[in-house]
Fold each of these.
Amino acid sequence: MRSGAGLGRLCSTPAIIAFIAIAMAVLPLIAPPFWVTLANYIGLYTIVALGLVLLTGVAGQTSFGQAAFVGLGAYTSAWLSTAHGVSPWIALAAGLALTFVVALALGFITLRMRGHFLPLATIAWGLSIFFLFGNLEFLGGHTGMAGIPALSIGTIELKDERRMCWLIWLVVVAALWTMHNVLDSRQGRAIRALKGRLEMAEAFGVDGARLKIVVFVYAALLACISGWLYAHLQRFVNPTPFGINQGIEYLFMAVVGGAGSVLGALVGATIITLLKQYLQDALPALLGTSGNFEIVVFGLIVIVLLQRTRDGLWPWIDRLLPHAKPPPVPDAAPLAARVQPAAASTLLEVRAARKAFGGLVAVNDLTFALACGEIVGLIGPNGAGKTTTFALLSGALAPTSGDVRFRGHSIAGAAPYRIAARGIGRTFQHVKLVPRMSVLDNVALGAHLRGRAGFLRAALRLDRREEARVRAEAARALARCGLAEFVHAEAQNLALGQQRIVEIARALAADPVLLLLDEPAAGLRFHEKEALAALLRSLRAGGMTVLLVEHDMAFVMGLADRLIVMDFGEKLAEGVPAAIQSDPAVLEAYLGGAPT
Amino acid sequence: MDLSIAALLAQDGITNGAIYALLALALVMVFAVTRVILVPSGELLTIGALTLAAFDQGHVPGTVRLVAGAAVLAGVIEAVRRARRGEWRRALAGAALWAGIPLALAALAAWMGPRKLPLAAEVAMALALTGALGPLTWKIVFEPIADASVLVLLIVAVAVHFVLTGLALYFFGAEGSRTPPFSSASFDIGALRVSVQSLLVLATSALAIAALALFFGRTLYGKALHATSVNRLGARLCGISPDFAGALSFALAAVLCAFCGVLIGPITTLYYDSGFIISLKGFVGAIIGGLASYPLAAAGSLFVGLIEAFSSFWASAYKEVIVFTLIIPVLLWRSLVTHHHEEDE
């Protein structure tokens, strides 16, 4: 943000990837063979680490088992091409298919596990497959398989390392570029929300379980390609490079390089490869004894590095580079909008909905209805069951009994992402933004269901027209909420009150029929509350229905058409604000008795 | 397989399982207090066993130099940290504490080395010396990043595992060692020969499990330790020092791991790098307990020990494959019954 736009653009990720492509096209022509060999290994490792950037750094799922997928790719091709004379290119397809099936199965089992379950499950899987490679006779056991043919493209044999270097780095650059594109897309926003914001992502139509599996399979396929290249580079495979230690090292690369960014994979793979190489050469000479000193020094360096810079090296380098100021979001044709249902028709019916947690009945046979185009306040003392009611409406919880019908369809117990698709948008009592994503991207995530672009289109940049419309839509939602000046700010840098408004903008970007707002005015200043009330009134005028939980009585009394009062999980009263204010039962619940 | 072989395998499995259970306890405890997954537990185990083996052979164990080096480093780190805040007197006291106690231990161990004291004294020294590595590791490595994410802590723990493996090779060499058993007696129950050593293993494991469960479940201090893992800031506001809690849990864990080494030493020949795979089995047990429940972790570890014993009989080449593959369904089951809270970044 300091220097000129030209220099800043030169330091953008795509420009750096282009620079790498040029450098690696030239390097094999001029560099000595030793450097070419190193470059080959760095390339192979980068491909695997890149998968981990997506899986671990961005989606928050830790895997120690990537080396095993590398092994699947290497062994499939080694076995097919030596024992059966199959072309390596067909063997690649077979390896990818096998990896796909294995990763899919493992993903189904392990990705249900959050936190530390997944990393340990991947250790187990990595160890099992390593021992399997070592014990299966037809795969050569612990001695391995030799005589793997070289790759050839047409009549060109890629026998020498220089030619392999071109192929490997072609794959690396393609993988970097497509990954960068994917992260900068509709799917990328959803993936970034998987880490710690799953509930929010699902409320905007992201099928979190499925997306996690897709990400896991994607990372596995990248590892498989790296393994295939490795097998035909080395022309020999044995189980050692696919063991758990290598799996750990891949994760080291991603974390040390910076698991949150595409170029972190490249930086990490380069640093760790060069470091190990250097240590293996330098330490025995320095210390004069043989021993395993390189892993000691290597371990120490990783410790010190992570003590100094927890996000890894790339973000640290990136801060030193000049950055171009992001341009204003260009306007684009609006996305197709829903037709709001006719005013005053019944939109939502809650029929005797009940939610019990063991013996505690949080919502007790609650019945109410919302008509189109009204603002209804759901109020009640703390612990009255308001937030649980919201969870039942949005699908975060399934009711124990009773029914919730939205536009004539039962949505009780449906998955949140399906309810979102029917036109319910929501905000959260505790703000749930993706902290390191821009405000614009956070709001664009709200429009997830209004776009169609999948991984492939995003990877190849074929999603740009749709993406421009999504971003323009998000920018309009932000402008409507009065946050136009913050579009490019990181969400975590906004004040809490502003973050609440971003939540509303995100819900608006989803083009909902019903808006569920959980304490939208909490933490807002007086003028901000006035602006919020004005915004909600204008939404009502446009036909939108709003249900809000709110503790600020002045705010809700002045805004709502009707109020529903809850206490101890039951509906206590329902009516226009004036009637509620003088309802004896309500006064009893709030004040412990009617004023005399 | 006849009944006597089955009984023999079961005895083997239960003995190993009891050792995995102790390891699992150490892991659960450290995780519960610090959110660190103690990957180097395996190295602490081998270092404990190899230290005892050195005493047994009348050498000064390499652990003496390892502890002395770490103590000096920890003392310097503590002194610099305090001095930077201008707390000069505390800088001196901290350095004296962090460097002094381990150095005194190391000196005592060096004195004991060639003297062939009774086995109990040697075991106590091996535990104390290895135990000192726990808080030293905490001080040098983890305290500065105690509030980092579980992933960063995990990666750093793996790095510590590498460092300790390399150092173990340097200090103990590549040869394997066995340690003397507490008792070589055995007796017969029907057709089954039961060794007193395995009974001792079982009894001490059960004792340690009960003690830890009581400590964390029933005592105020145990609950305070657990509270720090849930919310460091909140614990600090309530007068609990998270740094002290971390050092204490690392000390306890290191002693437990070293004790596992002492128990497993007479059964298996240990090399400098044998620890990792043993500790992974402890992990599996700990995971079965959801990294939270001590009795479940112990039960899980017994289960791992039994699976290992029986699969080594039926398909010994595939022993590890079977052990590590079987845990995947167990993990699935755990993930289904555990309630999750989303972890914020």
Amino acid sequence: MTAWNINWLGFELIDYFWPEPHDSEFYFGETRWTISTLIVFLPLFLFMNFKVLDEAGKDPARRRSTVRKWFGYVTLFIAAGVLVGDLVFTLNALLSGDLTLRVILKVALLGGISALVFVYFRGEMNDAEE
Amino acid sequence: MRKNRIIIAIAALSLAFILVGIWVTGGPSAGQAERRDAARLSDLYELQDLTFCLAETAGGVLPDEISLSEICKREIALTDSNSGEAYIYQRISDRSYLWCAPFELPERIRVFGENRLNIDTGCVQFTYRP
């Protein structure tokens, strides 16, 4: 939820700061919605992450939980899929001549967030396997 | 350690986006101004309906001044309920006219269709089609 909304809000801000001539007028309603979602979900994400790491630190067996592994691998799969899709989109935009600064920034943001999620969960899965 | 850095990066990015987002959208006062502007725009469209009725009852001629008549009874305010300023009508040709309102953030207003809001004057140009 947090990763999705960071991207969404980032895309909104990129559209605002780097407008293109054919754009329709900017609509602030969506921006406010993503800000509100992030304000709620970011502390929740940080708290839950802290709690999970804390509990796993106290009891390493928790890392080997099947549900945890299953969720971790699904997230890894999704993050890898987004990264590959991002790369395909970038190449297609390049070949189509659509690789504007705005597209580059959006692709970089999406790729960056996906890479962070991927590296994080790969570390989690490695810990679980050890 | 690497996982902590990733969490900090995601949290920092989210926080930065939230702050920039609030700065761009303008906070609660801008949201209230947008809602007041939306009400003004809605009034202008109702005044367009009144203008059409007055023109129809005058034999297909746009009026020089707007007044509520017995035939064209409408629940329309000719003044902005927030600022108390009068909406301004201006006939610019046999088929075109303007309705102007004291918009606070006209650059944020989205007007669909053929009618266009001039963000410098706060006027919407309408076309009369008998």
